[in-house]
Amino acid sequence: MRARAGFTLPRLFRAEPGEPAMPRFHFNIRLDDAFLPERTGQCLRDADEARAAARTIVRALVSQHGGEPRLLNAAILVTDAEGVEVFELSFFEAIYVPVPAPEPLHPLPRAAVIRAPAAGGLLRAARIRLERRLRTWRASCAEALRTLQAMPRFSLGFDGGR
């Protein structure tokens, strides 16, 4: 398949001889009595990938149109290129039915090794700065105390001249 002279489509976008092309799915919306067809569609591997795309479309629409209560009665009707219904997904199901959580990501061992000394070095540097400030503060407090002790006592004269 050639798009332009001298330009070959990448393997991802073309079917090899003997291989079936990726199916095209259309995501049509049914809201009350209205039917909003999608004309272009998307090429996806299978119905499971189309279901995931439908969930994403529904969640984007709901986040865009927020608290519109009619949206909970809407459904997305997924059809193939010939117009045959593959499945129907209600907006309510797409929003409220939980999907399995993805597997947790594990940090790379190398990243953990790099971060540990850096964090320790930052803490050590902060502790050293705090110790310097504490020594300076202690010295200034001691100086202020000596200055106060060296000052003559203030007397109002009611203590008998002491």
What does the model show?
The chain has 162 residues and is of the alpha+beta class. The protein has three helices and seven strands. The strands form two sheets. Strands 3, 4, 5, 6 and 7 form a five-stranded antiparallel sheet that branches. A two-stranded antiparallel sheet has the order 1-2. A hairpin with a 5-residue loop joins strand 6 (75-79) and strand 7. The chain is elongated and about 105 Å long. 7% of the residues are buried. Mean pLDDT is 77; it is low at 1-14.
In a few lines, what is going on in this structure?
This protein is of the alpha+beta class. The chain is built from three helices and seven strands. It starts with a strand and ends in a 12-residue tail after the last helix.
Proportion of helical residues? 40-55%
H/E series, N to C?
A: EEEEEHEEHH
Runs in which pLDDT lies below 50 for 5 or more consecutive residues are 1-14
Beta fraction: 15-25%
Indicate the topology.
Layout: E1 2-4, E2 7-8, E3 24-31, E4 34-36, E5 42-43, H1 47-65, E6 75-79, E7 85-90, H2 91-96, H3 109-150
Antiparallel strand pairs: 1-2, 3-4, 3-5, 3-6, 6-7
For the structure shown, list the relevant keywords.
single chain; 162 residues; alpha+beta; five-stranded antiparallel beta sheet; two-stranded antiparallel ribbon; 7 strands; 41% helix; disordered N terminus
